[in-house]
Amino acid sequence: MTKPSQYKALFAPLKIGPVTAPNRFFASPHSTGHGWTEPKGAIALRAMKAEGGWGTVAVGLTEISPSSDYANHPMERIWDEKDIPRHHLQVNEIKKHGSLSAIELGHGGMQSRNLTTGLPIIGPSNLSILRPEIPSQSKAMDLTDIKSFRNEHKAAVKRSLKAGYDIIYVYAAHGLSILSHFLSVNTNKRLDQYGGTFENRIRLLKEVLEDTLEMANGTAAVALRFSIAEPDKPFGMSQDGEGRDVIEALAEHPDLWDINLSGWPKDSQTSRFADEGFQLEYTNFVKSITSKPVVGVGRFTSPDLMVSLIKNQQLDLIGGARPSIADPFLPSKIKNNQIENIRECIGCNVCVSMDAYGVPVKCTQNPTISEEWRKGWHPETPPISRKKETHLIIGSGPAGLECALTLANAGHEVTVAEAKDEPGGRIAQESKLPGLNTWRRVIDYRIFQLSQKKNAQIFLSSHMSINDITDFNSDTVTIATGATWRNDFIGSTNFDPIETNNYNILTPEDIILEKFKNSHKTKFIIYDDDHNYMASVIAEKLLNNNHDVTYVTPLPTVSTWTQYTLEQGAIIERLKSLGIKFALNYKINQNFEFVNTIDNKKLKLTSKNVVVVGGRIPNDRLFSDGQLFNTVQNVFLTGDCLVPGTMQAAVLLGHQTARKILDRNADALHSKREQTIH
After folding, report:
1. Distance between CA 42 and CA 33 in Å, rounded?
2. Residue 392: which residues within 8 A CB-CB, separation 6 or more?
3. CB burial class (10 A; 0-12, 13-18, 19+) of residue 191?
4. Rounded to an integer, what distance in angstroms lies between the CA atom of residue 553 and that of residue 509?
5. What is the model's pLDDT at position 517?
6. Which domains does the chain have, with CATH numbers?
7. In 3D, which of 236, 231, 256 has the Cα closest to residue 187?
8. How far is CA 233 from CA 229, 230, 328, 604, in A?
9. How far apart are CA 439 and CA 534, in angstroms?
């Protein structure tokens, strides 16, 4: 199939120094969570992107030496010659699909931990390191240390060239690089030739860039990844200040500019707080300064926007980390005029959250990510099924729809019965909340795909009794009826129900469905014992409707888990701007008193309306009483009605359930494991 003419610009080759990218799709560097101990998983993930048409596939931050030990974060390594075979295999797997391979070499400087190596953490100045959870300081590098660092970087470049990489990165971005720390007035307090003036602070970056160009010597391209602005720092880089100065000073030095924002919460903002292309206002000017190719990011998923950026000379390459995770085959689908088949990134940052745990990346839209090698899953190839069957799926939330689509893709007859008058389950509800509208992509994609299949049907307003299920006479029945928010205050810090007749107890569903109707300004207390996004977004909805809201939580922080999705700071700022009141460290007791966990003071309640955001109860009634087992042989539970969790967990459970149905003799828990014994 020929590519549609309006998108031809995205498939034009581009010369980057001595190499040529086959198209304008650039899978940006990001950690896969496999690190150097699980290379086969990382290699298979990146090879899948190359197979899907990303013209350049970059490896995430790769430690150049033992003095840059990120400890619990599973980073790539190229410390010595023993690391080369692993990288050589990765290069070959990427290149066999016609893509360029790139490696992002970096030293963490004041972001390093060195917990396993025991080496001193180094940086421009003797300051506390930039990881508050690590009680350590950085050693101020003397000139000998600087020379050693440059030599370590050159050695890593040499090893990268030996492995066969087409593009070698110099990394000065996200506040995660020693080069960023030398550039920044916040971390560089030196008074010698590497500190003080801008010319001195940029010196090390320029030297390392020149070293890398000299080592590459025209055999590989050299890219500079640079954070052009630090919007969250009062004295940080800015696009109209020193960020621009860096571009002007080094304009023609690298073969490729990779530009972005710092820190990471600004660079990888969620869709709740930033629209597609949100970085463009900071990066638009770069092409006017340099003649070299420029790649940028901004959670790009719209082919029309991508084309306009190329044609208007705002970018030369479309960078994508999260979009390439959500759909490794995004470029191929654009090329083949299958735009409607793209699994668009929803910007939920579940992928980002995995970094905090040091585990392989997960994705709400793409349940096959990180399972390419372990389980042999492919995002576009249906599971093999020897026998075609009929399947009834009760519930059309994220788990039910994913299960249905996976079964239908395998050629089975699928019927989805939804009790409500609209499909989508929890996502149909939650996507109506402030900032969460892109989450609808999860259900819209799956509903559309099912609608195009003759072997799949969705019936709405179809409440199924046990007799209805029995009469349907399908080969299997999968219950995907979701979960309901509790109103008894059982949550993450309380396992016993609390009752009261003196207050109006509401749940998130009551607020979302507007069961509580009051056009007048009303006072609400939101008690957050869930600690994810829900309490904050319910608060935002009420505040937007001019109600008075007090956010109460037994923990010392707001929406604690959202620190892992990089949006906790943005949540706090949004709620503050709307006039919320915070009461942290207040836990409810059996007397319905909110007691401070530090000083035992009681919170004076100013409202009779309490929204409790705690645990959820699985809607498993069809299954739990055991009657179905007497009439239907193959019954499965999946998603939140099996165990309430995140959207991503529900989609993954739906996918796993479908694969279990397709091969009921397979060991669902089995997957290949890498062993690091040498």
Report:
1. 8
2. 415, 417, 464, 469, 472, 474, 476, 477, 478
3. exposed
4. 19
5. 66
6. 5-357 (3.20.20.70), 390-475+638-662 (3.40.50.720), 485-617 (3.50.50.60)
7. 236
8. 9, 6, 34, 36
9. 14
Identify whether 654 is preceded by a cis peptide bond (ω within 30 of 0): no
Q: pLDDT, tens digit, for every residue of 577-634? A: 999 999 999 999 999 999 999 999 999 998 999 999 999 999 998 887 777 877 888 9
Mean predicted confidence (pLDDT) in 254-260: 98
pLDDT number for residue 404: 98
Q: Kindly report the backbone phi and psi dihedral angles of residue 656, in degrees, each rounded to the nearest multiple of 5, phi listed first.
A: -65, -40
Instruction: Enter the pTM of the model.
Output: 0.96
Query: CA-CA distances (angstroms) from residue 536 to 552, 593, 649?
Result: 11, 22, 21
Closest CA to 618 of 497, 462, 526, 484: 484
DSSP 287: G
Task: Give the span between the Cα atoms of 490 and 556, in whole angstroms.
Answer: 19
Closest CA to 479 of 554, 555, 399: 399
Tokens linked to 240: 């109209």
Q: 7's torsion region: left (phi>0), alpha (psi -120 to 50) or beta?
A: alpha
Question: Cα dihedral angle (664, 666, 667, 670), rounded to 10 degrees?
Answer: -140
Only one residue has tokens 């109006």, namely 504
* 209 token code pair: 């860039």
Describe the crossing of helices 568-577 and 534-544 by its angle, rounded to 10 degrees. Answer: 20
First to last CA, the chain: 47
- Strands (E) in 456-568, as ranges, are 456-459, 476-479, 483-485, 504-506, 523-528, 548-553
Q: β-strand 548-553 against 581-584: which pairing, if any? A: parallel
pLDDT at 519: 64
Give exposure, 314-346, as e/b (b: 16+ Cβ within 10 Å). Answer: bbbbbbbbbbbbbbbbbbbbbbeeeeebbbbbb
Cβ contacts of 184 within 8 Å, gap of 6 or more: 175, 201, 230, 236, 237
CB 642 within 8 A of CB 620: yes
Taking alpha carbons only, the member of 14, 573, 509 closest to residue 265 is 573
User: Judging by beta carbons within 10 Å of its beta carbon (0-12, 13-18, 19+), is residue 510 exposed, middle or buried?
Assistant: middle
User: Is 271:346 a contact under the CB 8 Å cutoff?
Assistant: yes
126-130 long-range CB contacts below 8 Å, 24 or more apart? 127/187, 127/189, 130/175, 130/181, 130/187
- The confidence band for 516, taking pLDDT boundaries of 50, 70 and 90, is confident
Q: Which residue is it, tokens 């004076």?
A: 604
Q: Is 430 helix (H, G, I), strand (E, B) or coil?
A: helix
CB 377 within 8 A of CB 358: no
**Alpha helix (H) ranges present in 15-142?**
39-51, 84-95
CA 189, chain centre distance (Å): 34
Q: What are the two backbone dihedrals, phi and then psi, of residue 484, each rounded to the nearest 5 degrees? A: -120, 140
- Which DSSP symbol is given to 549? E
Cβ atoms of 299 and 272 closer than 8 Å? no
Any alpha helices (H) in 488-618, and if so which ranges?
508-512, 534-544, 568-577
Looking at the DSSP assignment, which residues form a beta bridge with residue 526?
Answer: 551, 611
The model's pLDDT over 451-501, given as tens digits with 9 standing for 90+, comes to 999 999 999 999 999 999 999 999 999 999 999 999 999 999 999 999 999
Mean pLDDT score, 511-539: 91
Give me the residues paired with residue 296 across strands: 259, 318
